[in-house]
Amino acid sequence: MNGVINLKEPAEPATRHGCGYLSVGFGNPAPIIASAYAVLENVQFDTMVCCGTSGLLVAPILSRAMGRHLAVVRKGKINTSAYGGTSSADNSHSIAQVEGMFGRKWIFVDDQIESGSTLVHVAESIRDLMSYAVPLGDPEKVLSEFMGCFLYNGGCQYVPVNDCAQWLEGVI
Q1: Residues near 87 by Cβ (< 8 Å), separated by ≥ 6?
Q2: Which of 35, 63, 101, 163 is deepest in the core (most CB within 10 A)?
Q3: Is the dihedral of CA 95, 56, 111, 89 positive or negative?
């Protein structure tokens, strides 16, 4: 074996369950990867952040294809009762609200933004993480900066940080 792993496409399924935006993550990733490259061509970022099922289907594929870090924010509060903390609805196997690798500039990857509640949750979780993270180098520098959103439902689009202000006032 030469160290190269050849990934194979699965056979055509007999049935497909569900519909809508989740189908993007179950299908051929090539179109969404190509769209992400085109839409994000002039956006400076090194980290993709996702939250929830739909984001976890798409963001890992995009981050690997584009050579970016990936961070996942848990949707609900985590259950830390097994570690001496308080209990909540999420029966997580971790005490971390945010998992993964983080760079200096991040974008949020999601299917769409309706109320903005998921984006606010993600931004607050990252703000909280950065409030106790130890920076490398100059401790006065901002550890990570929100650059906007990449949305993939109904056609891929980039929403710049200034256009997200309506949801994030007072958060970042």
Answers
A1: 79, 80, 81
A2: 63
A3: negative
DSSP codes of every residue in 101-136:
---SEEEEEES--SSSHHHHHHHHHHHHHHHHPPPS
pLDDT of 27-42, one tens digit each? Answer: 778 888 999 999 999 9
CATH 2.60.40 fits 20-168, yes or no: no
pLDDT digits (tens, 9 = 90+) for 69-100: 999 998 866 544 544 445 444 555 666 788 88
Question: Which residues, in sequence order, are CB contacts of 158 under 8 Å at separation 6+?
Answer: 39, 40, 43, 107, 148, 149, 150, 151
Tokens 């584009």 map to which residue? 66
pTM over the 0.85 mark:
no
Q: Which residues pair with 95 in a beta bridge?
A: none
Q: Where are the domains of the chain?
A: 20-168
Name which of 64, 61, 60, 95 is nearest 81 in CA terms: 95
